[in-house]
Amino acid sequence: MADYDVIVVGAGNAALAAAVSAREQGAGRVAVLEKAPRELRGGNTHYSGGLFRFAYDSAEDLRPLVPDAEKEVPGFFASVEPYPQKRFWDDLLRVTESRTDPELAEILIGRSYDTLRWVGEQGVRLEPAVSLSAVRVGGTIKWSPGAVIRAQHEGVGLSASWFKIAAARGAEIAYDTGVLRLSQDGSGRVTGVVVQDPNGTREMTAKAVVLGCGGFEANPEWRARYLGRPWDHAKVRGTRYNQGDGLRMAIEIGALVHGQWTGCHSTPIDADAPPHGDRKLTDKTNRLSYPYGVLVNAKGRRFFDEGEDFQFYTYAKLGGIILNEPSGVGYQIFDQKVVDLLEGRYKTGQPIVADTLADLVARLPVDREACLDTLTRYNAAVKSGAFDATVKDGLATSGLPLPKSNWAQGLDAPPFVAYPVTGGITFTFGGVRVNAQAQVLSTRWQPIPGLYACGEMVGGLFHINYPGGSGLMSGAVFGRIAGANAAGGQ
Ligand SMILES: Cc1cc2nc3c(=O)[nH]c(=O)nc-3n(C[C@H](O)[C@H](O)[C@H](O)COP(=O)(O)OP(=O)(O)OC[C@H]3O[C@@H](n4cnc5c(N)ncnc54)[C@H](O)[C@@H]3O)c2cc1C
């Protein structure tokens, strides 16, 4: 007789969705094993912006999710564009260069709306993602389609809600309890886990095990191994506990790997951000308003088309691009025409300020002559036209070898401000291969009986880049599926 019906490894969004789903589908005893101590619980989910990307046919579909939205944002439902499944598909295919696994993507996209409804029904409070998604220009408010809803109180609220809900549904949550390896019987079925807690190591048995214990983003040795230089030096935006344990233990028993193992999600963050996520600052070190300014490296040169697309479609690759520049740093430069457009998160940083571009450059640790030359050439390359932050306005530079394709205005309204940035790693893309039931496949391309995976551990969905808000959605979708099937004891 097993100790538990289902053991869930990890305690982020994916794992707790799995635990709640398992209980909902009739699992008797469900254990949630969290390696972190209670005060550091919740994985990357705690640090996240709480944003969920999902498909909906009309703004009216959002009403059941955020019935009170108009109280906070008058005119909310009239201002949101539809985001049908086809648009989610287009975004995912575009940013992953068509490498996303179509079967997994179909599940993610096709079940996104229904799953977010389920998340809300479980008791996670949702709200319009005002500070993340809304751009206000004059009287107009424009939402980034598909990325309009987040958990109340962001990742902190999402994580706290999931813990509360899981406990209320009877899941037994153990902290300081890291899983070391999986146990199997002679037939190859997973029968439990070996854990380490403050009392030592011991075995816990279960009819099924769900792995929801993150990627290897916090493990510098694995980053060096799979992502290469300079990723061993990257700052970690979230939890320090995602060390690749789940991937290692699944691979040890023959799990099939999947997806882009050289890829990860990485964003521009404050160059002075701490080496691991800060529980209070959470995602506030992000610096994502670069489409409105100019980005230079330590050599004083531009290296990225700041206006390639809206930030939600470029931010997740830009961190890595910055990290690969000399010293892994960049400087985002803005003038007074756009400072009001900078995300509120910039307030957590200390900009360098000066009244002339020459003075600003003199205060930056860059090749000053080259930097001034870059900014002068940039200013000479902007064209006249109407700047509009709410659309890709086509206001592009002319004649630069590296264009700025949209929102290219001259830097001519002092004082000028510069924010130093580096690339912070969020999560890794490589994972294990799961089927539509979230069962982990073996290298024999057969499900490993009794083993499921969800969240960051699922490989194949994201490659090269990522549409913002898809990580939590994937975790909820595959967590819910994994928990339900684990409860069924397949
Ligand atoms: C700063 C930041 C902002 C983000 N913002 C967003 C956003 O707004 N929207 C979005 O979609 N995504 C966002 N993301 C990404 C998103 O947070 C992750 O994709 C998602 O939270 C991953 O969920 P998960 O459950 O797979 O992993 P996690 O939430 O990381 O949970 C993994 C858990 O496993 C535990 N664990 C690890 N090893 C073991 C072990 N051996 N035994 C037991 N437990 C173990 C960890 O302690 C942790 O609790 C953000 C991430 C960060 C860091």
Secondary structure elements and their pairing?
Elements: E1 4-9, H1 13-24, E2 30-33, H2 43-47, E3 51-52, H3 69-72, H4 76-79, H5 85-95, H6 102-110, H7 112-122, E4 126-128, H8 130-133, E5 134-137, E6 140-143, E7 149-151, H9 154-168, E8 172-174, E9 178-184, E10 190-197, E11 200-211, H10 220-227, E12 235-236, H11 245-252, E13 257-258, E14 264-270, E15 294-297, H12 315-323, E16 329-334, E17 352-354, H13 357-362, H14 368-381, E18 416-428, E19 431-432, E20 439-441, E21 447-453, H15 470-488
Parallel strand pairs: 1-2, 1-11, 2-8, 11-21, 12-18
Antiparallel strand pairs: 3-7, 4-7, 5-6, 9-10, 10-11, 13-19, 14-18, 15-16, 16-18, 17-18, 20-21
Helix pairs in contact: 1-9, 1-15, 5-6, 7-15
The protein binds flavin-adenine dinucleotide.
Tell me what you see in this structure.
With about 500 residues, this protein is of the alpha+beta class. Helix content is about 30%, strand content about 20%. It contains 15 helices and 21 strands. Strands 1, 2, 8, 9, 10, 11, 20 and 21 form an eight-stranded mixed beta sheet that branches. Strand 20 and strand 21 form a beta hairpin. It is globular, with a radius of gyration of 23 Å. The model has no long low-confidence stretch (mean pLDDT about 95). The chain binds flavin-adenine dinucleotide. The site of flavin-adenine dinucleotide has 43 residues, from helix 1, helix 2, strand 9, strand 18 and helix 15.
